[in-house]
């Protein structure tokens, strides 16, 4: 019987060989890091090996038992970023100490919001010499070093090596970017001090702005200042929580509450931002419908954050990111529109909001895995928000100054109007007073004089006669009183009429006034055609001569 020999085709052999090579390369163990020679800080991103545990079925015992047979892959990123993932992830790192003394190095996972972090240090014999179970959803005292991020101390004796295993897991599938560093104690201390100084300046600046504007609100009661204080306060708590300081200093024994604070504060931030933008730009007056849309979107952001109260974290960001983008676009569009209308305050708002938007966009793109983790994407929100709040505070100061100037202008206009009204009132009162005095004078004149002839009447004669007699008794000077009447006046009046008679009376009165014009002379119409004279004289003869001359003038 002939047996057929089968030879694999060259192409088949090549494919199998390449497949085997590709299978081995990704999880081929990387060279150990010499921690004895390590000085400064080393980014571990390119040095770690990764294992995705989709079913969460691996534990450290299985990893040690199966060893290199597992499908470990290499990391090619400076910063690990699993973003939205339902898997648990294992990280492996091999270190060795070629020096002649034991060393301690610190492994930092520089992101404070990781839910679960398990760490294991394994010696060359496969024994676990150190392990930790910590994370943002465990009590803060589970961390081996009191720090806002996760810092694990790795001890390596002289001439020995260690394997470090890290297990990362989430509550419901949202990973933050995972920057990993290995450093000596001095480098970590220097880094921690730099970060603490930077964050102290940042949060101290925000707190100073908050207190200043709160005191300013209490002094002025301007509503935009109150909205600014609430908006800034919400953002302060959001940043303080997301950077791990709130968990470290405020509620270290409340991990569940700590994880609820970040998404809830994002929703509250959206609502306070809408209120502040409305009062800052006076949107209800300029665009009431758009303002209602703005509040609606902000309300949706707040509602989207409520699942965090039930322990759901990842769904919050699935919902809130689109809402935040829509809210940002609305505010940006409103700011552009009001800026084009010549609103100076809107221009300040546009610049401030644009800076913050850039920072927020960089942060969310990093969370979504689109952008890598680096110093720009990590601290963009802090830098952008610091600039934004400073610009908005300056804008509020400008707005309050405008309100003050407008108020002063209104008060000045009111004072001018009041002064004008007072002057007008005074002029009217003066005019009425003058008119009243004139009327009184006219009444007095009418009461003292004869309306036909203009001479003093009989009543005035009686008053002046008594005064003149008393004065003459004191001075010893002579006073001449003479009475005159017109002969046959009644006959003339009856013959030619009252009008002709009145003309005669006026003519005689005019002659009297023309002839007796000295300062002390007094002329009276005593009644009918009778006239009286009071003359100050030095002698009787002087008086008689004056009367005689007048009679002759009258007859002539």
What does the model show?
The chain is of the alpha+beta class and 556 residues long. It folds into 3 domains: 23-183, Immunoglobulin-like (Sandwich), CATH 2.60.40.2380; 190-402, Rhopdopsin 7-helix transmembrane proteins (Up-down Bundle); 458-555, Alpha-Beta Plaits, CATH 3.30.70.270. It contains 15 helices and 14 strands. Strand 13 (522-527) and strand 14 (530-537) form a beta hairpin. Helix 8 packs antiparallel against helix 9 (314-340). The chain starts with 9 loop residues before the first helix and ends with a helix.
Concise synopsis of the structure shown:
The protein has 556 residues and is α+β, with helices and mostly antiparallel strands.
Specify the CATH class of the largest domain: Mainly Alpha
How many distinct beta strands?
Answer: 14
Largest sheet: 7 strands, mixed
Are there runs of 5+ residues with pLDDT below 50, and where? 1-29
Structural class: alpha+beta
Share of helix among residues?
55-70%
Distance between the termini: 194 Å
Task: Give the rounded overall mean pLDDT.
Answer: 85
Write the layout of secondary structure elements.
Elements: H1 10-24, E1 33-34, E2 41-43, E3 49-53, H2 60-66, E4 73-74, E5 88-96, E6 103-109, E7 116-122, E8 128-134, E9 150-156, E10 161-169, E11 180-183, H3 185-220, H4 223-242, H5 245-249, H6 255-281, H7 283-286, H8 288-305, H9 314-340, H10 344-367, H11 375-448, H12 458-475, E12 478-485, H13 489-496, H14 498-515, E13 522-527, E14 530-537, H15 540-555
Parallel strand pairs: 1-5
Antiparallel strand pairs: 2-11, 3-4, 3-5, 5-10, 6-9, 6-11, 7-8, 7-10, 12-14, 13-14
Helix pairs in contact: 3-4, 3-11, 4-6, 4-11, 6-8, 6-9, 8-9, 9-10, 10-11, 13-14
